[in-house]
């Protein structure tokens, strides 16, 4: 998982200004300073970009909770934008697994200002593809 720190393995995240800087079993965190690519012509972060960032954070969180060789995929994401942010605002992102079963994981994600004000929140459902145990 350490190799996914930084851009999370996705070049798009670098272009948007996201840098993953921490993770543990079932959670992941990132710094996000939105770049112009993430914003509309007025310099405000475009709503759909929040979905990309939330999905990436929750994907990283899910993978941090899985055993080596297990995989996950997003089934659905719902998000709300609470307040607008703009180019060069300093933000923090945190994704976390709230429950994982054999085949499904439930997650949540928040984007906050560095002062702790909520910017956007999300929930998601991921399908888990667990590696089959080896037969002896």
Q: Nutshell version of this structure?
A:
By secondary structure, the protein is of the alpha+beta class. Helices cover 18% and strands 41% of the residues. It has one domain (2-129): Thiol Ester Dehydrase, Chain A (Roll).
Could you list some keywords that capture this structure?
136 residues; alpha+beta; Thiol Ester Dehydrase, Chain A; six-stranded antiparallel β-sheet; 2 helices; 6 strands; elongated
3D structure, described in words:
This protein is α+β, with helices and mostly antiparallel strands and 136 residues long. The chain has one domain: Hotdog Thioesterase (Thiol Ester Dehydrase, Chain A), CATH 3.10.129.10. The chain has two helices and six strands; from the N terminus they run αββαββββ. A six-stranded antiparallel beta sheet has the order 1-2-4-5-6-3. The protein starts with 10 loop residues before the first helix and ends in a 7-residue tail after the last strand.
The fold-level CATH name is Thiol Ester Dehydrase, Chain A
Strands, count: 6
Question: What is the CATH class?
Answer: Alpha Beta
Q: Mean pLDDT across all residues, rounded?
A: 92
- Unreliable stretches: none
* CATH architecture term: Roll
How many angstroms does the end-to-end distance come to? 29 Å
The helix/strand class is alpha+beta
Order of helices and strands: HEEHEEEE
Give the fraction of residues assigned to helices.
10-25%
Order of strands, widest sheet: 1-2-4-5-6-3
Show the helix and strand layout.
Layout: H1 11-16, E1 18-24, E2 27-32, H2 47-65, E3 71-81, E4 91-100, E5 104-113, E6 118-129
Antiparallel strand pairs: 1-2, 2-4, 3-6, 4-5, 5-6
